[in-house]
UniProtKB/TrEMBL annotation:
Family membership noted in the UniProt record: Belongs to the glycosyltransferase 92 family.
A cellular component annotation (GO) from this entry: membrane
Record flagged with keyword NADP: no
Transmembrane segments: 20-42
EC number of the protein: 2.4.1.-
Stated name of the protein: Glycosyltransferase family 92 protein
UniProt membrane topology term: Single-pass membrane protein
Pfam families: Glyco_transf_92
Lineage: Eukaryota, Viridiplantae, Streptophyta, Embryophyta, Tracheophyta
Any GO MF annotation of the entry: glycosyltransferase activity
Keyword Glycosyltransferase: yes
InterPro entries found in the cross-reference section: Glyco_transf_92
Keywords tagged on the record: Glycosyltransferase, Membrane, Transferase, Transmembrane, Transmembrane helix
Length: 601
C-alpha cells in the first residue's frame, strides 16, 4: 500500500500536471495553426512570392495573454456580466518618458470608467490594480490606453481589466499563472522602437513606409537605404527580436525616422488583408555571412492603409488642405480654422500630440458647422517631422495642395490703399495657378514674428486682433506642397519638404503674401512651450543646450520664469494690417464680435 505521503504527492501531481499540459497543447496548437495559415497565405497560386523576398520561419513561444480569468473579465458568467469590458486584447506596449502606453484592439470611447491597469510585482508575486490615466481612439477601430509607469520591481508587461465590484488594490495570484505571465515579451522603450507602418499605395507607388525611433540617422540628409531591411511577421517580435514566420524585403529609401521598403508579393496582391501584419526594421549585414544582420528594432507597428479614397482622380481631389500638429491648443483652433477656411482651405488634418483639453469638443462643434476636420491621435512625442510625413501620405489621396503650419500662424495678403482687397478663397486661387505646373511643387511664404504687444493675458478677440507689434525682419518660411511630388524619403525640416527630382519651390515676394506668426504671446500662453517641443531635432526649452538657437526666445533661459519686461519684447514695428482686415471681413456688424470670440457664444 502507498504511504500517506506518497498518496499526497500523486494527488498534487494530478492537480498541476493537467494545467501544464493544457498550456503546452494550447501553445503547440497556436504555433501549428499559425504556420498552416501563413503557408496558405504565401503559397496560394494567387499569391506568388516576390522574387526579392526572403522567408525566415522561426518558432517562438506564444505571447497570448494567459492571465487568470478574474483579471481579464473573461471568467464565469457572473463576473463577465459585471464587467463593462468583457474582452480587451493588448496588441502592444511601449514605455514612454512619463507613462506606459498600451494599444488595444477594441475601440473605447472616453471617458472610460472602471478600467484598471494591471501591474505585476516581480518580488512579492502579487498583482496591483490602478485606474487608467486616459484613453484615446487610435487607427479608427483601436484604442490607446495610458497607464502609470510601473513601480520599481514591477514588470512593464502591464495588462488591463474591467473593474468588478469596485475591487482596487492588490491580489495574490497562483504561482502557475504567475510564471506564465513572466513569459511575456520584453516591453520596448520609446527611444528604440518601430511605432508606425503605412502602406503607400497608388498607381505609381506600392511600398510600405515605416516610422522608427533608434535609427540614429542624420537629421537633414538622406541615408543609404541599402543598409536597411524590413521584416514582416504574423506575431510580435520577441525579446530576441524574432517573429513567427518572417518575410524580409529590401529598403529603397531612408531618412530621419522613416524607412521605405518594398512589399512582399503576397501583400501586394491582398492589401486589405495586411492590417494584422507587424513590421519592423533592421540593419543589413554582409550577405556572405550568415546571421550578419543586426537585430531588428522592437516593434508595436502593424500595417495601416491610410488611403480611404482609392481610385479618386486628381480632378476629384480638394484643391487645398491643411495639416498641423498640436498639444493643448483647443482654445486657438476656432480662429485658425474659421479664418483659413474663408481663404479657401477645404480639408483639415489635425494631429493631436497627447492633448488633454477640449480639442475633440471644439472639432465636433466646427464639423457641425460644415468644416471638414479629421482629428488623428498621434501619441509619439518629439516626432513632428515624422508626423508631417505621415500626414503627407494621407493627404495625397485627397488633396492637390497641402499646407503645413501651426495654429499660431496665419496667411495674410498685404495690400495698400487703392489695391484690390483679397476676397474669399484667395489662398486657394493662388495655389490653383500652379496645380499643373511642370516646375513648381512647393510655395514658400516668409514669416513675421509677433510679440506680446504690451498684453499680459490672451486677447479675447483672438491672436489676429490682439497682437499687433512684431519684429521688423522676417524669420524663416512656411510651405504649401503638392503631396504627390514629395521625395520618396519624405525628408523634411517641418518648414519644407525635399521634392522629387525636376521640381523646385516658388518663393512668394513679401509684398504679395506673408505668414503672421504669433510666436511670442502673453506669458501665460507662451510658458506652455516649456513643457516640451514637438520637433524631433529641436532642444526642449528646459534643456541646457543650444541656447543661441533661433528656436529659442532670445535672452530667455531654461526655466519658465517671466522676464520683467516680457510684454514689451519683440516689438519693433506696429503692424495692424491683419487686424484691420479681420475686423472688416469677420466682425459682426451689430455687436462687433468676431465669430471665434468666447463672449460671442
Amino acid at each position: 500500500m502507498d504511504s500517506p505521503q506518497r498518496r499526497k504527492r500523486k494527488q498534487q501531481a494530478r492537480i498541476y500536471k493537467p494545467a501544464y499540459a493544457k498550456f503546452l497543447s494550447v501553445r503547440s496548437l497556436t504555433v501549428c495553426l499559425s504556420f498552416f495559415v501563413f503557408v496558405l497565405f504565401i503559397s496560394s497560386d494567387r499569391l506568388p512570392i516576390h522574387k526579392g523576398v526572403s522567408i525566415r520561419p522561426v518558432l517562438r513561444t506564444s505571447t497570448l495573454s494567459l492571465l487568470p480569468a478574474f483579471l481579464t473579465g473573461n471568467g464565469d458568467a457572473d463576473a463577465t456580466s459585471k464587467s463593462q469590458y468583457p474582452r480587451l486584447v493588448v496588441e502592444g506596449r511601449v514605455l514612454m518618458p512619463d507613462h506606459l502606453m498600451l494599444i488595444v484592439s477594441t475601440k473605447l470611447t472616453p471617458p472610460v470608467d472602471n478600467l484598471d491597469c494591471v501591474y505585476y510585482d516581480l518580488v512579492l508575486e502579487q498583482v496591483v490594480l490602478k485606474p487608467v490615466l486616459s484613453v484615446d481612439e487610435y487607427h479608427q477601430f483601436k484604442s490607446i490606453v495610458r497607464c502609470h509607469l510601473p513601480p520599481l520591481n514591477f514588470s512593464a508587461s502591464v495588462n488591463l481589466r474591467g473593474r468588478q465590484r469596485g475591487r482596487l488594490g492588490s491580489v495574490v495570484v497562483e504561482r502557475r499563472d504567475w510564471l506564465l505571465r513572466l513569459n511575456q515579451s520584453v516591453v520596448p522603450s520609446w527611444d528604440r522602437v518601430v511605432y508606425e507602418a503605412v502602406l503607400d499605395w497608388n498607381a505609381h507607388t506600392r511600398n510600405v513606409v515605416v516610422f522608427a525611433k533608434g535609427l540614429n540617422l542624420k537629421p537633414h540628409r538622406e541615408a543609404d537605404a541599402r543598409k536597411f531591411r524590413c521584416h514582416f511577421s504574423l506575431t510580435d517580435f520577441d525579446q530576441h527580436h524574432r517573429g513567427l514566420f518572417v518575410l524580409t524585403t529590401q529598403a529603397i529609401a531612408a531618412a530621419q525616422e522613416t524607412v521605405r521598403c518594398l512589399l512582399p508579393r503576397s501583400i501586394l496582391n491582398n492589401p486589405d488583408k495586411a492590417k494584422d501584419i507587424r513590421v519592423t526594421v533592421g540593419r543589413r549585414g554582409d550577405d556572405n555571412v550568415e546571421g550578419a544582420d543586426d537585430a531588428p528594432l522592437p516593434s508595436i507597428a502593424k500595417l495601416q492603409n491610410v488611403n480611404s479614397h482609392q481610385g479618386k482622380s486628381n480632378t476629384g481631389k480638394y484643391e487645398l488642405c491643411a495639416c498641423t500638429m498640436l498639444w493643448n491648443q483647443a482654445s486657438f483652433l476656432r480662429e485658425w480654422i474659421i479664418y483659413h477656411a474663408w481663404l479657401g482651405i477645404e480639408r483639415w488634418f489635425i494631429y493631436d500630440n497627447n492633448s488633454d483639453d477640449e480639442l475633440q469638443e471644439v472639432i465636433d462643434e466646427l464639423n457641425l458647422q460644415d468644416y471638414n476636420i479629421t482629428r488623428h491621435a498621434w501619441p509619439w512625442v518629439k516626432t513632428q517631422e515624422a508626423g508631417f510625413s505621415h500626414c503627407a501620405l494621407r493627404a495625397k489621396h485627397e488633396c492637390k495642395w497641402l499646407g503645413l503650419f501651426d495654429v499660431d500662424e496665419f496667411f495674410y495678403f498685404p495690400h495698400d490703399r487703392g489695391q484690390d482687397v483679397p476676397g474669399p478663397n484667395s489662398l486657394r486661387a493662388l495655389v490653383m495657378n500652379y496645380t499643373d505646373s511642370p516646375t513648381y511643387a512647393e510655395i514658400r511664404t516668409v514669416c513675421h514674428s509677433y510679440g506680446p504687444s504690451g498684453l499680459t493675458s490672451s486677447p479675447s478677440q483672438g491672436v489676429t486682433g490682439g497682437y499687433t507689434c512684431r519684429l521688423e525682419a522676417p524669420e524663416r518660411h512656411k510651405s504649401i506642397v503638392r503631396p504627390e511630388l514629395l521625395h520618396t524619403t519624405l525628408l523634411n525640416a517641418v518648414h519644407h519638404f525635399r521634392l522629387q527630382d525636376g521640381y523646385r519651390y516658388l518663393d512668394l515676394p513679401e509684398s504679395k503674401a506673408v505668414v503672421n506668426h504669433y510666436k511670442y504671446q502673453a506669458w501665460d500662453t507662451f510658458k506652455a512651450k516649456f513643457f516640451r517641443r514637438v520637433s524631433t531635432y529641436v532642444t526642449n526649452w528646459q534643456d541646457d543646450q543650444n541656447k543661441g538657437s533661433k528656436d529659442r526666445a532670445p535672452g530667455l533661459g531654461t526655466e519658465a520664469i517671466e522676464p520683467s519686461n516680457w510684454r514689451l519684447q519683440f516689438c519693433e514695428v506696429w503692424d495692424t494690417g491683419l487686424k484691420n482686415f479681420v475686423m472688416a471681413n469677420f466682425a459682426d456688424s451689430a455687436s462687433g464680435f468676431l465669430p471665434w470670440e468666447r463672449s460671442h457664444a
